[in-house]
Amino acid sequence: MNLAGSRYSPSIYTQYPKVELHRHLEGSIRLSTLQEIANAHGITLNKDAPLRNLVQIGEHEPYTVDNFLSKFSVLRLFYRSPEVITRITHEAIEDAVRDNIRYLEIRFTPVALSRMEDFPLTDVMDWVIEATKEASLKHNLPTRLIASVNRHEGPALAAEVVRLSAERINRGIVGVDLAGNEAEFSAEPFAPLFREAHQAGLHITVHAGEWGPAENVRQAIEQLHAERIGHGVRVLEDKDIVRLVRERQTVFEVCLTSNYQSGVVPALTNHPLVRMQAAGLRVTINTDDPSISRIELSDEYYLAHERLGMSLKGLQHTVITAAQGAFLPESERTALVEKLQAEWEKFL
Q1: How far is the C-alpha of 233 from the C-alpha of 254, rounded, in Å?
Q2: Which residue numbers are catalytic?
Q3: What count of Cα atoms within 13 Å lies in the side-chain half-sphere of residue 303?
Q4: What is the pLDDT of residue 46?
Q5: Whether the Cβ atoms of residue 277 and residue 318 lie closer than 8 Å to each other
Q6: Domains of the chain from N-terminus onward
Q7: Model confidence pLDDT, tens digit, residues 254-270
Q8: What distance in Å separates the CA atoms of residue 85 and residue 135, rounded to the nearest whole number?
Q9: What ranges make up the beta strands (E) of the chain?
Q10: pLDDT (tens digit, 9 = 90+) per residue, 17-59?
Q11: Contact 219, 211 (CB under 8 A)
């Protein structure tokens, strides 16, 4: 993303200490790594299209949900070995460190990672857990995992992922996520399953109010026990639901570039992030799929500040809100908040 013309040196956005709560592992793979995997495993792709065009959003592509999700269909061809899955996990954490992220939650989709080679879900989850633990220790970046399931793949498969996640709470999986196309697939069939996940001690985040209406945010909170909402940018369409999320102190995982590239907002300047914050909602800034969108979290801070007019104090508030909304024990959340508040003092 071009940062030319910024009132500040572009590097300042990298210097800001950050927290990321909404980053998909499958959308965080370096293009160079994908090319190496394709060469090593003989993966045959469309010879008439460069790899970049197949797995990343280009400037002249249609910004629609179908086009955005099509990138994941190609990416599923690359999960060919434990070594590949371990590598992409390590590199996702390395990239976050380079962007000065102080705490990271990565959500990964075990079904997506397992399908190409028919790996057992247990193995895939353990590979990601071990790789995360190793990279987190190596780079001194506290990282937790969220297991994600897709609406279109149905509750039965999701139930297996939730069960395995509950068995791994003490090994780094802290929550579960419902993702996928909410415009065509309801969250309602997953409600009993997510109640069970909540009772098992897993935290809950749900993609809602992105491609679907504000009512989906209410459903996620009241029926699926969502503590956080992935995206949720259509929540302002319903005053009653705005009142509900304020009362519940629900945290929103907002992803600016992703919302634009997937057609949720018609223009970046129309993004409701600042209006959501002004309405008293607990908003955070995230990348969603940094490789697919060709961004880093610093780019999203640039957009929020330079294009949407969010103040530096507002940026800091999103970081502190993210720390407060982290799926961590209370003592660890408090320590993270205090650390970030102290680090941000020099920028305000």
Answers
A1: 7
A2: 210
A3: 25
A4: 78
A5: yes
A6: 11-347 (3.20.20.140)
A7: 999 999 999 999 999 99
A8: 13
A9: 18-24, 101-108, 143-150, 173-179, 203-208, 228-231, 251-254, 282-285
A10: 999 999 999 999 999 999 999 999 999 887 778 899 999 999 8
A11: no
